[in-house]
Amino acid sequence: QVQLVESGGGLVQAGGSLRLSCAASGRTFSSYVMGWFRQAPGKEREFVATINWGGDRTDYADSVKGRCTISRDNAKNTVDLQMNSLKPEDTAVYYCAAGAAVYSNTYYRDYYRYTYWGQGTQVTVSS
Questions:
Q1: Which of 40, 80, 100, 121 has its CA 20 to 30 A from that of 3?
Q2: 115, 28 in Cβ contact below 8 A?
Q3: How far apart, in whole angstroms, are the C-alpha atoms of residue 11 and residue 53?
């Protein structure tokens, strides 16, 4: 089992930056695909970014591509999301998620691929 705890959210002005971090427990963190999702009030949870086991393959939602970078440190059991040039429409609760994978080059965009979820961290971008 994997437990996930997000941190780093907060209030920031448009154009600013935030770095979200997710700390994972469990011995097999390095064999999980990791992802970030977000959910704004009244909207469905949406994919933001994902990263494979080794951290050499990533994918991003079009809405954040070029502004966000996902990274992981398997030695520290952490996955981060660096967000730059933030916009008011980035306001949401951001969730970290872990999904098992058989192959090292796998990553997932679909929420149902993920088994474990954190409690979320609020990001608010003011205009």
A1: 40
A2: no
A3: 31
Q: Which of 105, 37, 39, 30 minimizes the C-alpha distance to 72?
A: 30
Query: In degrees rounded to 5, what are phi and psi of residue 95?
Result: -120, 140
Residues 56-101: pLDDT tens digits? 999 999 999 999 999 999 999 999 999 999 999 999 999 999 999 8
SS3 label, residue 95: strand
Q: Is the pLDDT of residue 19 over 80?
A: yes
Using CB atoms within 10 Å of the CB of residue 99, give its burial: 0 to 12 exposed, 13 to 18 middle, 19+ buried. Answer: buried
Main-chain dihedrals φ then ψ at residue 113, nearest 5 degrees:
-80, -15
Residue 29 DSSP SS3 = helix
